[in-house]
Every structure is written in structure tokens, then in C-alpha cells.
Amino acid sequence: MPSRRRCCKTLCQSCKKKCSGEVLRVQDKYFHTQCFKCKVCGNSLAQGGFFSKDGAYYCTADYQRNFGTKCATCQDYVEGEVVTALGKTYHKKCFTCDRCRQPPPDEKVTYTGKEVLCQKCVQIPVRDGTPKTSPTTNHANGKIAVN
């Protein structure tokens, strides 16, 4: 959050005019309160909640739109605590086991080559989907016999 103070003999980083009265100090730079704005939309950043990149200042929405990372599951922007796996980024709540759809309780998962599985589900054997021969299947005509 920018700090407010009274200064003199200092130039505003935005308009290059002498700072007088109430100004903002942001990372050793000074701004008139009305000059501290988002580089993209021009909205005031004087109340805080901004990002800095390459010497420019951005509101949260514009920073995310231009530089943010989206969750691989829900496509919303991620910030704060995230999970990164297999080159993708997720909100913690969005990173779930492909079988039980629950977040892994111990954050340990196994990638099978097709699925990301929690430790509980990785123990469950996988059926390959091919019908097995059963004693009630009549192989001659492909119909199931009912006894």
C-alpha cells in the first residue's frame, strides 16, 4: 500500500511536476495522489491493490488480464496459494483426483500417463473396459442368456 506524506523538492514520477501537499511514496518514488494510476485503464491506484511490473503500475484486473496465470480447471486467474503439476497451474480447490474428484488430502498424487490420482484411488485396480467372458454369455450369437 502506498504511504502518504508531505514532501517538497521532489518530482512526481508521473507528471514530473514538483510534489506539494499530500503525495504518495511507492517503492522510493513519489506521485501526486491523482497521478498514481493504472497504466492500462487509468484508474486511480491511490487506495492500494496494485501490481508493479517493469516500472509500470497496474490495477489487479489489468495486471491479471495482461500477465496473470489462469487455473487449468476453472480458467479463473490464480493468485495466492496454488498447485503446479505437469506444467499447469491450479487453484488448490480445483486440483482434484481424476477418479474421486476430491482434492488429494495429503497433496501426493500419481500420474498414470492418463490420470492424476490421489493415493487412495491409485490403489484401486483399473478395469480396461473390455467385456470379460462370463458364464452367462452365449458366444455363438452374442446374446446374454438369462437363467
UniProtKB/TrEMBL annotation:
CDD domains: LIM1_abLIM. Pfam families: LIM. This is LIM zinc-binding domain-containing protein. It comes from Tenebrio molitor (Yellow mealworm beetle). Keywords: LIM domain, Metal-binding, Zinc. The lineage of its organism: Eukaryota, Metazoa, Ecdysozoa, Arthropoda, Hexapoda. Residues 10-69, 70-128 form the LIM zinc-binding domain. One of its GO terms (molecular function) is actin filament binding. PROSITE patterns: LIM_DOMAIN_1, LIM_DOMAIN_2. GO terms for biological process: lamellipodium assembly.
